[in-house]
From TrEMBL:
Residues 195-229 form the Transposable element P transposase-like RNase H C-terminal domain. This is THAP-type domain-containing protein. PANTHER family: THAP DOMAIN CONTAINING 9, THAP DOMAIN-CONTAINING PROTEIN 6. Residues 1-120 form the Transposable element P transposase-like GTP-binding insertion domain. Signal peptide: none annotated. It comes from Aphis craccivora.
Length: 327
């Protein structure tokens, strides 16, 4: 569904909200172009492959990273803080990006301890908020419009590219019914993680079956049985990094007991200490400055501060050297 929504906006370039304000694909293209020109990325994973995704349309990861909260925040930053002309009037696109991201997160909750508003498990105590979010999301999707062949605006859910948007509506309504039938009544489930209802697990299983067949991605019954037995007996199910779906939690599929050799905590800590305390004179300050294309000082300053803060927080968790912490 997410891929179909991304493909619709990417192919048509423009859709409209309930107020006939344009949701434009060009803002995503401008963001990638601006990041590449500056040489620094504003806390996003969107790259040129996300824009030119014709050969990777089946990769869910690319679609999720395109319609993500980080991309919406980057567009907001470029529009409001930097006041870049190419991002003028992008508020409608930002709202669309945030809405799709929130719906996707809501339909893929997998962390019981999450405090995020849209990534928490479904509980009866949150019934009011959940139903309000479902209602608002369905109304938003139903109000989206596109241009017909006659240049007239019609509802997107009645167009030829309606499948992905109708899929979101059906999933949201299904979660609403699950809340009423399984979670709300006493003596039933205390909570539910919606990622457990995802078809990603089946998709990853099929990916592993196809991988066993080499170039043959359409196995016969005998070949499928053979691949299934090998997966069941010899190894746990592992998914290729190039598969259409990637595992997002620790749900086991055809797993057997196995252990991975990991480095001890002391070894890892010593490696980080050696890296941080080692003196390196190969890079001079002037070389670093020359490598950065200083086009927008405000943008570069904010990005560097964000990266520095992230590194400091990560290092402080594992740092045991008092001298380094004082620095």
């Amino acid at each position: 569904m997410l891929k179909l929504c991304r493909n619709t906006l990417g192919d048509w370039k423009t859709i409209y909200d309930r107020n006939d304000k344009a949701i434009l694909w060009k803002y995503f293209e401008e963001l990638v172009s601006y990041q590449d020109r500056i040489g620094l990325h504003s806390g996003t994973k969107i790259r040129s492959r996300h824009i030119s995704c014709h050969k990777e349309k089946m990769k869910v990861r690319l679609a999720a990273q395109t319609f993500s909260m980080s991309v919406a925040n980057a567009l907001t930053f470029c529009s409001t803080t930097l006041n870049l002309k190419q991002f003028n009037n992008s508020e409608t696109t930002i709202t669309f990006c945030k809405t799709i991201n929130n719906i996707f997160d809501f339909l893929n909750t997998r962390n019981f301890l999450s405090k995020s508003e849209y990534q928490k498990p479904l509980k009866s105590s949150d019934e009011g908020k959940i139903k309000l979010f479902i209602k608002d999301s369905i109304q938003y999707i139903q109000s989206l419009k596109c241009e017909s062949n006659n240049k007239e605006k019609i509802l997107l859910v009645k167009s030829q590219r309606k499948t992905g948007f109708l899929g979101f509506i059906i999933c949201l309504q299904s979660v609403h019914n699950i809340l009423d039938d399984i979670i709300k009544p006493p003596g039933t489930l205390d909570f539910l993680l919606t990622y457990k209802l995802s078809q990603d697990h089946l998709e990853m299983f099929f990916s592993a079956i196809r991988a066993r067949g080499g170039f043959n991605n359409n196995p016969t019954a005998a070949q499928f049985e053979s691949s299934y037995k090998r997966l069941l007996v010899h190894t746990e199910l592992m998914v290729s990094s190039g598969a259409n779906c990637l595992p997002l939690d620790l749900t086991t599929i055809l797993t057997v007991n196995s252990t991975n050799k990991t480095k001890t905590e002391d070894t890892i800590t010593n490696i980080y200490i050696d890296m941080l305390c080692a003196e390196d004179n190969s890079l001079l300050e002037n070389d670093l400055i020359n490598d950065i294309n200083i086009v927008d000082t405000v943008y570069i300053t904010n990005v560097v501060e964000y990266i520095s803060g992230f590194i400091v927080r990560k290092v402080q968790r594992i740092m045991v050297c008092d001298t380094c912490l004082l620095l």
